[in-house]
Design a protein that fits this description.
The complex is a heterodimer of chains A (310) and B (184). Chain A is elongated and about 110 Å long. Chain A contains three helices and twelve strands; from the N terminus they run H-H-E-E-E-E-E-E-E-E-E-E-E-H-E. The longest helix of chain A has 22 residues. In chain A, strand 2 and strand 3 form a beta hairpin. In chain A, strands 1-2-3-4-5-6-7-8-9-10-11-12 form a twelve-stranded antiparallel β-barrel. Chain B is α+β, with helices and mostly antiparallel strands and 184 residues long. Chain B has a single domain, classed as Lipocalin, CATH 2.40.128. Helices cover 16% and strands 52% of the residues of chain B. Chain B has an eight-stranded antiparallel β-barrel. The longest helix of chain B is centred in the N-terminal third of the chain and has 18 residues. Chain B starts with a helix and ends with a strand. Classes of the chains: A mainly beta (310), B alpha+beta (184). Chains A and B meet through helix 1 and helix 2 of A and helix 1, strand 1, strand 2, strand 3 and strand 4 of B.
């Protein structure tokens, strides 16, 4: 009986040895590795947009931890200003800003706008990340505050003596909801609430509600077509110093070279801050109120990633 | 009796499965360096999430490198690496399927360092090339450290370098592998 058992045992081993050999082609070993790796976490979808801002508005992109970004945004005058103003080149407004990534999910920034000498500061927090085969969108919160240090438009209903410092303030809250549909196409919806501390309250509300729609379509690896539109639900027809204001529409290109990203565009907004874009866009594409503008971003790594700390 | 025989048979079957020794890692390190003498900054990426499996019975050795897990010193460079050069959305993994040619020279039951020649197919950016990699296996108990260094020609894997930066990126990247495998 024992002999019989030993024989069986040996034959079983032999059968398995053969089995082991035939099954162990590298393809199967790769499959085995694949099976083991798949149980890991889902891949995050990255690079929904090229930069932290598309044209005037913010994107869901954050600066990485320890990265400093200097941004110069420039808007020339309207193209319809004619030859004597060199088609708008002679008049220009600029925003100079510095942004910094505190963590991979939280970034802050400050900036100065030439238009109305407006200083602004913001914080952007990534709340949800789009995942492959999981979460369909990336969601961030953007909040900013700004102060007009230059001439502010004071409604006629308010005496100059009553004009307080707090009347110069504006607050913006945005939810940035974006999805990268393919490596070349991304779309973002931006529900926005802008709060102006001072308005002619007999005619207007302090709060402006708007929805931003922005998109990016890559034309090549380094060039992308971009577009951005803010639709306002709150009527603001005659807010800005008695001037009619319009929804902001911008179209442009992202072009990158090495350490720079150039964003070239046409827009009807002369200002760059959220306040200026939503409440001070006094030109319209229909009447040639379009200006050429560009953003230049240059990033610096202040804190090295942990893999590079020696 | 029949039951005992059957269970012995199954036991034997399981036993041989265990005997086909496999070593595995999920935290292998792969470093590439594509710095050229004219590069304005170091072009180096570090990946600590490489998965690897070695079959010591057959000498088969496979690697999977998640391309998006390469960390670079400059975030923007990392973005360019993924978006423009490796197209990691389209080709998320680099793979190597190979075999230790001189398997007889390695004694997996005895501590020590063994020089090996691994030949196989390397797939990067969706392109597969046959390559031979000289490496070193260090056996220590139930652990094996696999180390290797070899160059990879970017053009072989159709990694496109635009003319403006042609001389700022090395034509050949040096790859360094350092993987600690544990008995599976």
């Amino acid at each position: 009986m024992l002999k019989y058992l030993v024989a069986l045992f040996l034959s079983a081993s032999a059968v398995n040895a053969v089995h082991a050999q035939s099954a162990d082609s590298t393809g199967d070993l790769m499959e085995e590795l694949e099976g083991d790796t798949k149980s890991g976490k889902k891949q995050e979808v990255e690079y929904t947009f090229k930069a932290t801002r598309l044209i005037n508005g913010s994107t869901v992109e954050n600066l990485a931890h320890g990265v400093l970004d200097t941004r110069i945004s420039h808007r020339f005058g309207n193209l319809n200003q004619g030859a004597e103003n060199f088609f708008g080149i002679d008049n220009a407004y600029t925003r100079i800003g510095i942004d910094y990534g505190i963590t991979n999910r939280i970034m802050v920034g400050i900036g100065h706008n030439v238009l109305s000498k407006e200083n602004d500061g913001f914080v952007k927090v990534k709340l949800l990340k789009q995942l492959e085969g999981g979460m369909p969108v990336t969601v961030s919160y953007f909040g900013s505050a700004s102060v007009l240090t230059g001439d502010a438009i004071v409604p006629s209903s308010i005496d100059d003596d009553d004009f307080k410092y707090s009347d110069r303030l504006t607050f913006t809250h945005q939810l940035l909801i974006a999805r990268k549909f393919s490596p070349s196409f991304s779309l973002q919806l931006t529900p926005t609430m802008l709060h102006l501390n001072l308005v002619d309250s007999s005619k207007y509300s302090n709060n402006i509600f708007a929805l931003g729609v922005s998109g990016r379509m890559k034309l090549s690896k380094r060039v992308a077509l971009t577009g951005e539109y803010f639709y306002r639900f709150t009527g603001m027809d005659n807010y800005y110093g008695g001037q009619k204001t319009y929804n902001s529409l911008s179209l442009g290109f992202d072009i990158e070279t090495g350490g720079h990203v150039f964003q070239l565009h046409f827009t009807n907004s002369m200002g760059i801050s959220e306040r200026a874009v939503l409440a001070q866009t006094t030109d319209t594409w229909e009447k040639g109120g379009v200006r050429y503008g560009f953003n230049i971003s240059r990033v610096f790594t202040i804190l090295k990633p942990k893999e590079f700390k020696k | 009796m029949k039951k005992i025989v059957l269970s012995l048979f199954i036991l034997a079957a399981l036993n041989t499965q265990v005997n086909a020794q496999k070593y595995m890692s999920r935290t292998g390190k792969v470093v590439f360096d594509a710095t050229s003498p004219k590069s304005p900054e170091k072009i180096e990426g570090i990946n600590n999430e490489t998965a690897s499996l070695l079959n010591s019975a057959s000498g088969e050795f496979v690697f999977q490198v998640p391309v998006k897990s390469f960390k670079m010193e400059k975030e923007l460079m990392q973005q360019h690496f993924n978006e423009n050069y490796m197209q990691s959305d389209k080709f998320p993994k680099a793979e190597f399927k190979g075999k230790i040619e001189n398997l007889a020279a390695v004694n997996f039951t005895k501590d020590g360092s063994y020089t090996v020649a691994v030949v196989g197919n390397l797939t990067i950016h969706g392109e597969t090339q046959k390559i031979a990699i000289p490496g070193m296996l260090t056996v220590k108990g139930s652990e094996i450290t696999a180390k290797a260094k070899f160059p990879v020609k970017l053009a072989d894997y159709k990694i496109d370098i635009p003319g403006v930066v042609a001389d700022k990126i090395a034509k050949e990247a040096n790859i360094m592998i350092d993987v600690l495998l544990n008995k599976k």
